[in-house]
Amino acid sequence: MQSLPSLLPYDQQLILSNTISAAQHAARRCAYAAAIKHYRQAKALLLDLSDAPADQFFQIGLGLASALKFIGEFAEADQVLSELLQGVWVSNLALDPPSLSDVLVKSLAQMADIRQHEGAFDQALAYLEVGRQVLGEAGEQSQPQLCLLLLDRKAWVRFRQGYLAEALSLANAAIQSSRVIRAEDPDVLASLHNTLGGIMWQQGNLAAAITHVEESLQLSGSLNDLRGMAVANGNLGILYFNSGNWAQAIHYYEQAYAVQQVIGNWQGQATSLDNLGLLHMAMGQHETAQQELEAGLAIRRKLGDAWGTAQSQINLAHLAVTRSNFKDASQYIESALSLADSTGSFESQIEARWTQALISLEKNDLLTAIEIAETALERAQAAGLMEKHAGCLRVMGVVNTRLDRYDEAERALLSSVDFSEKQNAPYRRGQALLTLGQMYQLRSQLDSSSKRPWRTHAVSAFSRAAQLFEKLGATHDLNLAQTALNHLQGP
Question: Any idea what DSSP says for residue 170?
């Protein structure tokens, strides 16, 4: 039998180029599994070509790392990028200066993205700083897209850390820069608007937050970027949940989850499961919430996502406290606190500590409870996290009530109600009113000389809370408020 002729170098190069094109096309469609398959095939073909252009080596590495990152395979993406950077040092003479800085900056930005997913925020910032040094002043002028990429990623990391003022300044500077130099990149701009939406939400400006995230969704849609669309849908779900439009929240959460399943984005699926779990917990569907939160936690543990694991555990601790299962709550929060402290995320630290304060109350460790609650409130105030601020004030009200500091409890709870109203956050306002009613009810039982006025205050607070919960569909909290009202208004 006659053997087939071996491929000529030209034929091999053509096959390699076509394979890279197929990988890039799959990545643009967010078909990450197919993209990874093609990039791996291209990497194998590259080994057989002794004279392949250096830029193809970097194209394959960057593309493969990006696709791996988007499906949550952070360890392998990290390895690919490390090989890529090592290749830069070995073969940098084969690249012209603009191409070299392009490869370096994009690699470093991806490494930073992986580090921030792991909760290693300081390392992420270090990579971005190296990227800035690689560009230098000349690079910032000649390659504005790379400068925007670094600003975008740094703004997101600082937002994740809770440094809202700096994150806002960076994101605004990036958007303004894109307008001045006419270097608009829909992908980067979509990411920046998402970051700005997150900042506006934390600062209590829900209307502005929704506007920014809707802009992000529109930009991602113009690119047919399924991943970006999934992220924006999920963020819109969060915003509508907090504003009390739970029907819209479910719609956006389910849209996000469906797209994330299509593109195989496990990280995004975990986020959607957490979001759905929190919504179902608020609706009083505790078993469904438990299943969703546990599923999200399992994914995040598998991915090695430290920040996400901490957040899932905090959410499960919230649910356990709601269900009066303080043993499970204590276990979840102990692990979450360790992870939150290691990642340096203010947001996670604050939530974990106010939950820990409630657990300490159940153990009758009142001094520890007030100390932890005060620390959480101070951190929320310092970071400008308005949503967390309102939650901390409610917990301060609970703790001060147990310490018989009723005037301090009343001030904290009224402030929580006021903050929540200003932020257009009806569920948090209802929770604060419910806790306020419980404090007034207790005072009516303890202060016989002023029993009637305290009962009147309690009825008013419970009634307002019940109206909010009924409108939202928060069945568990509504039942608590109505039971309290029936007791106060009964014979």
Answer: H
Q: Torsion angle of alpha carbons 240, 242, 247, 248, nearest 10°? A: 10
pLDDT tens for 42-93 read: 888 887 776 666 677 888 888 999 888 888 788 899 898 888 877 665 555 4
Structure tokens at 491: 């014979």
Q: Please return the burial class of 296, using the count of CB atoms within 10 Å of its CB with bins 0-12, 13-18 and 19+.
A: buried
Instruction: Identify the CA nearest to 456 among candidates 448, 468, 444.
Output: 444
Rounded to whole angstroms, the Cα distance separating 250 from 255 reads 8
Q: CA-CA distance, 108 to 193, in Å (whole number)? A: 22
- Other Cβ atoms within 10 Å of 449 Cβ, number: 6
Q: Report the distance separating Cα 376 and Cα 396, nearest Å.
A: 9
Q: How many other CB atoms sit within 10 Å of the CB of residue 86?
A: 10
Per-residue DSSP letters for 457-479? HHHHHHHHHHHHHHHHT-HHHHH
Say whether 1 sits in a helix, a strand or coil. Answer: coil
Query: How many other C-beta atoms are found inside a 10 Å radius of the C-beta of residue 369?
Result: 26
Place of tokens 């399924």: 226
Residue with tokens 């994009």: 106
Cβ neighbours around 203 below 10 Å, total: 18
> What is the Cα–Cα distance from 18 to 9, expressed in whole angstroms?
14
Torsion angle (degrees, nearest 10) of CA 89, 91, 97, 100? -60
How many other β-carbons are positioned within 10 Å of the β-carbon of residue 264?
18
Q: For residues 229 and 266, what is the distance between their CA atoms, to the nearest angstrom?
A: 15
Rounded-to-integer distance, Cα 114 and Cα 373, Å: 32
Rg (the chain; Cα; Å) = 26
pTM of the model: 0.79
Q: What tens digit of pLDDT does each residue of 123-178 get?
A: 999 999 998 888 887 777 778 888 888 999 999 999 888 888 999 999 998 888 77
Contacts of 204 (CB under 8 A, 6+ apart): 386, 387, 419, 422, 423, 425
CA distance 362 to 333: 14
